[in-house]
Known about the structure:
With 218 residues, the chain is an alpha+beta fold. The chain has one domain (21-216). Helix content is 19%, strand content 30%. The chain contains four helices and eleven strands, in the order H-E-E-H-E-H-E-E-E-H-E-E-E-E-E. The longest helix is centred in the N-terminal third of the chain and has 17 residues, at 2-18. The radius of gyration is 19 Å and the shape is globular. The termini are far apart.
Amino acid sequence: xxxxxxxxxxxxxxxxxxxxxxxKYCRHQLTAWKFKPSLLEATANSxxxxxxxxxADSADYLPLPEVSQTNGYxxxxxxxxxxxxxxxxxxxxxxxxLLSWETLQDVKYKKKYNKEYEQYFEYPVFGARIKALSGxxxxxxxxxxxxxxxxxxxxxxxxxxxxxxxxxxxETIMTLVFKSPPSRFKxxxxxxxxxxxxxxxxxxxxxxxxxxxxxxxx
Length: 218
């Protein structure tokens, strides 16, 4: 009876895991992406008190913005002109360029001091191929990673090896700002999206790659 009981317990645990949204246990539920802090500064911060309180899991990252600061699908962070431009680009007759994650690896980093957070960050310096796509309609496929209620990112890798949990680089993740509130996605849903590709090389609280006016390709 002891063996039967243990067997039933393991089955129940496996079923609970399968039908739960495991993304809520991921590191990215506690943190937002920012440009990489320099190794020396991160080491100094481990000794000296940081300007902002942070949990042990998120010592090198900025807090995730509250959900109330968004409209449910990430658009409130952007000004109306930028969103209007993205919508116009996607409504045009221009065929979206196929964008690969390999192309997005064409980026280097330059260490610069950020006065607001009083530490150094590795700011991205984009290659020519990436710059040429900025402001253009693109098409890209990847895994959906939930960030918060109604907020999602697109990842080159599935949840278990994503930027937040698996140690992949920041070039493997992309902000999604949908043209209209999307249906609810499951973690690791593999989708193809179109949208206006935008670069971010100065705001440390946002991903360096962004897809605006995004829509799922049917």
